[in-house]
Amino acid sequence: MLTPLAAFYAAVKEQPNKAYLRQPKNGVFKEYTWADVERRARNIAFQLRKLGIEKNDKVALWSKNCAEWIITDIAIMMAGAVSVPLYPGQSKKNVRFVLEHSEAKVMFVGKHDNDQDVIDSIPENFPTVGFHGYTGPTHYDFDQLVNVPAAQDFKVNEPSLEDIMTIVYTSGTTGQPKGTVHNYHAYAFAASNAVEIIGLGTNDRGISFLPLAHVAERVIVEGQSYYGWFSISFVESLDSFQRDLTSIRPTLFFAVPRLWSKFQEGILAKLGGMKKFNKLIKIPLLGSLLKWKIRRGLGLDQARLCGCGASPMPKALIEWFDEIGIPIVEGYGMTENMAYGTFNFPDDRNVGSVGKPFAHVDVKISEQGEILFKSEALMLGYYKDEEKTKEALAGGYYHTGDKGHIDDLGFLHITGRVKELFKTSKGKYVAPAPIEGLLSAHPHIEQVCVMGSGRNQPIAVVELSETARGLDKEALEEELIQHLGKVNQDLEHHERVECLVLTQETWTVESGLITPTLKIRRDTVEDRFYQYVDGTVSWAPAPEANTSSQVA
User: Fold this and answer.
1) What is the secondary structure of 128-188 as a DSSP string?
2) 47 and 116: one domain?
3) 311 near 518, Cβ under 8 Å?
4) Nearest-5° angle of CA 190, CA 356, CA 255?
5) Span 519-537, pLDDT tens digits
6) Residue 277, Cβ neighbours under 10 Å: how many?
7) Phi and psi of 155, rounded to 5°?
8) Domain that holds residue 434
9) Are residues 433 and 404 in the same domain?
10) What's the CA dihedral at 505, 507, 511, 515 to 10 degrees?
11) pTM (2 d.p.)
């Protein structure tokens, strides 16, 4: 098994002049060939050595996705250091904790949505290297360093599979981040096996926009590119996302449920709503043409694999995309197993499940109903935390904290979090995840969080979709009450939701309502919105005062 660095060098040798990384600037893509990337990474590795970085030293990397991110990641390998990626949107408290806990010696910093937050988060006098586009002060400029040729006698590190490659800090919904320690073997095992199983090759095109600090993007896009030798394109900004996507026309596209929901919402808004869409789609010839135009308009007409992860995708949403010819496959993995867990393969899919185990992955359910994983992709442990490591890897399996079951066909189904179960005042336990999945099937519901510890019945806090915020308030309430009634019919009596708390605030990392990996912070949602429970439907105050009869 080749290390990712060895696999990268093999690609450089085989196709040096082929475009590898494509970075847009003012709507025009600048292309870096495999040879360009190798030269730039070698120069940065040389500069790291000059800065005193030695083997196994920690180097932090904090930026939105860009070509410099991957070039730097390769450079860190070449220098023999250990990468410590940080999520964009990370809080000041967490940034300082990670830098101190990991003992990072230097940090590469790139463009963020709000550079001032980044500036305020970096400890005074902490050594930094600035990517193009970052407006804060730095000690070194990436563009200057990358153009200084490495010395002829500079020897690139050749890591072994057992060497430590990276420490990835989780962004858990509670508590301090935990640093998952991964060696090159785990990364190589996950990425190379996925390339072989999925069948990726040099003609594929990837697009990178989900945080590279998360192992899913780092394995599915960056890692697979090392072994599949395909190109990666980036997006310039949130505003240019759709433009860039339609220009790139990726063959490999991985997103989160929220983005797929946004796609659907935008399409239906242009077509006049779901009812009109359903009529048009059934008209012979016109329906087929409409489906093709939608796929092409999204930039996914050439995508041969569209995936989804991070959180459950509503079954109704998957079926809607099936209808227009974009089958979406869900997978299940986590930081601790390099996102190499289960997958719904296009030709062996069970909507509502997270698929079957990848090759060489052992999945079982504990007596308590917890999902356990064992494979060569497992972490070595949590950095500087033997107690939590022993707990998480007890018996040689990673204990996910998720509850689930495996059906007769071998598909894994997730039914909730072990610690998310809550007990009502009637003494009945409720698992929120399945209820949230049913509620979120409605197109006006962007995200939902079910809670109710100590109450007679559960309640649900709802983030309204952008379209819903422009609708008549009374009509929207009536539509959601009807939807709630249908959902409750499918639930046990103690699971039935008695109140929907509607919020017009966008749930973001900055607001503290979701983590950088887009998981809901349940404790924060409960603290902020629990007080507004009243009747069947109630409203949390809008972020800005509005006296209109409409929602927004």
Assistant:
1) EEEPTT--S--SEEHHHHHTSPPPTT-------TTSEEEEEE---SSSS--EEEEEHHHHH
2) yes
3) yes
4) 65
5) 788 888 888 898 899 889 9
6) 20
7) -105, 120
8) 421-539
9) no
10) 170
11) 0.82
Query: What CATH number does the domain containing 510 carry?
Result: 3.30.300.30
**Tokens at 345, concatenated:** 């393969």
In degrees and rounded to multiples of 5, residue 31 shows phi and psi of -105, 135
Say which residue the tokens 């296009």 belong to. Answer: 346
Alpha helices in 342-440 (DSSP H): 386-392, 432-439
Residue 434: what residue type? P
- What whole-number distance in Å separates Cα of residue 386 and Cα of residue 389? 5
What's the gap between Cα 38 and its chain centre?
27
Do 181 and 286 belong to one domain?
Answer: no
- Residue 218 DSSP code: I
pLDDT in tens, 410-430: 999 988 777 777 878 777 778
Residues near 459 by beta carbon (within 8 Å), at least 6 away in sequence: 450, 451, 452, 497, 498, 499, 500, 501, 530, 533
Q: What whole-number distance in Å separates Cα of residue 432 and Cα of residue 415? A: 9
Find the angle CA(242)-CA(248)-CA(249) to the nearest 5 degrees.
90
Map tokens 């804060």 to a residue. 136
What integer is the mean pLDDT of 75-94?
93
Distant-in-sequence, close-in-space partners of 449: CB < 8 Å, separation ≥ 6: 432, 436, 460, 461, 520, 522, 525, 526
Q: How far is CA 326 from CA 257, 309, 372, 532, in A?
A: 14, 16, 31, 39
